[in-house]
Amino acid sequence: MSKVKRTYSSRSRLSHPSSSPSSSPPSTTKRKRFGEGAENEPPTKKRTTTKTPSSGTLAKSKQSGLRQLHFSIETSVLRACTICGLSYTRGAPDDESLHRAHCSRVQRGMEWGREEEREAEKAGVNEIQAAAKLKNGKKGRIICFKANVGGRIGSKLAILLETINLALSSPPLSNEILQSSKVYLYLIPSLTNAHREKIVGCVIAQRISTAMIVAAPSETLLERDFNQATDRDSTPSSPTHRLVAVDTTSGLFCHPQALPTPLGIPRLFVPSVHRRQGIASRLLSAAAATFIHGCPLDPLNGDVAFTQPTEGGHAVMQNWGRGGVRIYEE
Ligand SMILES: CC(C)(COP(=O)(O)OP(=O)(O)OC[C@H]1O[C@@H](n2cnc3c(N)ncnc32)[C@H](O)[C@@H]1OP(=O)(O)O)[C@@H](O)C(=O)NCCC(=O)NCCS
Ligand SMILES: [Zn+2]
């Protein structure tokens, strides 16, 4: 599982070796943390597939000894949802309803209602763009507020972040990060309730100081050649510089120098039914344009960095930032 190296979760994984998919305890850990919104078993599709064999292994072990019958009952009701990837106990009302709520948030997003609007002014919510058009023609709006907001909006943000962290198998953002971050939300009118809007995208934008430049594909190939050479030959001539491997599976390497970079994106999320409508890109552009008052930032110029991205995040990073987006450690 070398690909499970996202910065989002790698630290937690290092400190929790039992989350290895080849061992059985993950389900226990996951269920214990399910309602807490802390780091969790990875509901990303990539890792969902690794969970299936895990429960299969347990199922097989039960066949070899009747003594473990209680084990088989436990594992047979544990289900990993193929949509959101979350594992939960089938038949346990609490687990089932928590899963249903999470699954719906991952697919369709949460609501932004009257209650939030009522507090918007007091909470310092700014409307960044009033009529932001999606690819499907629908219009929405982009709002922004501080990530350490309290009250009703703070509670809503906490659930949203919990959903995002679960979906990305990321640890919660620290208070320190939240203090230096802004939230950008993309809202579209609700189809079912005229007084409500749907949150169809979220970007957390964080003030950072440095980040690394992503290596060009040609440099990455050289690095791979060098790695292969060192595998074969124990006394290689060292290159003038080495690249930092961010994700070897996708071939994401960086130059190790930490360069001044003002804006970091530690979380980026669009519910699944609203993807590929340009929402993430628009939110990122809104964040780059407004994060520092009076000083628009340019991703092409290296002003913006992502934490180690997912596959989809990497694609957006390339498409939106045209190779100029950097990488930083959360
Ligand atoms: C990644 C994510 C935020 C993208 O949101 P989105 O609103 O669908 O992104 P956009 O519509 O702005 O995509 C812009 C471009 O990025 C590329 N892109 C986006 N998602 C992609 C995907 N899954 N596969 C390949 N390319 C993709 C495409 O080039 C796309 O342009 P196109 O639709 O015209 O081809 C969304 O898929 C998501 O929330 N995924 C789960 C959470 C996650 O992985 N977050 C990223 C953490 S780093
Ligand atoms: Zn689900």
Question: Can I get a quick summary?
Answer:
The protein has 330 residues and is of the alpha+beta class. It has helices spanning 7-15, 26-33, 45-63, 69-76, 93-108, 114-120, 151-168, 175-179, 217-232, 279-290, 311-321; strands spanning 78-80, 87-89, 110-112, 126-133, 139-146, 181-189, 197-207, 210-211, 244-247, 252-254, 259-260, 263-269, 304-306, 326-327. The two termini are 21 Å apart.
CATH class category of the largest domain: Alpha Beta
The largest sheet is:
8 strands, mixed
- Full CATH superfamily name of the largest domain: Gcn5-related N-acetyltransferase (GNAT)
Structural class: alpha+beta
User: What is the helix fraction of residues, given as a range?
Assistant: 25-40%
Q: Give the uncertain stretches in residue-range form.
A: 1-64, 235-240
Distance between the termini: 21 Å
Q: List the total number of helices.
A: 11
Predict the CATH topology of the largest domain: Aminopeptidase
Order of helices and strands: HHHHEEHEHEEHHEEEHEEEEHEHE
From the spread of the alpha carbons, the general shape counts as globular
What is the annotated CATH architecture of the largest domain? 3-Layer(aba) Sandwich
Q: What amount of the residues lies in strands? A: 15-25%
Count of beta strands: 14
Bound molecules: coenzyme A, zinc ion
Query: What oligomeric arrangement do these chains adopt?
Result: single chain
Task: Return the average pLDDT rounded to an integer.
Answer: 79
Radius of gyration (CA) equals: 22 Å
Number of domains: 3
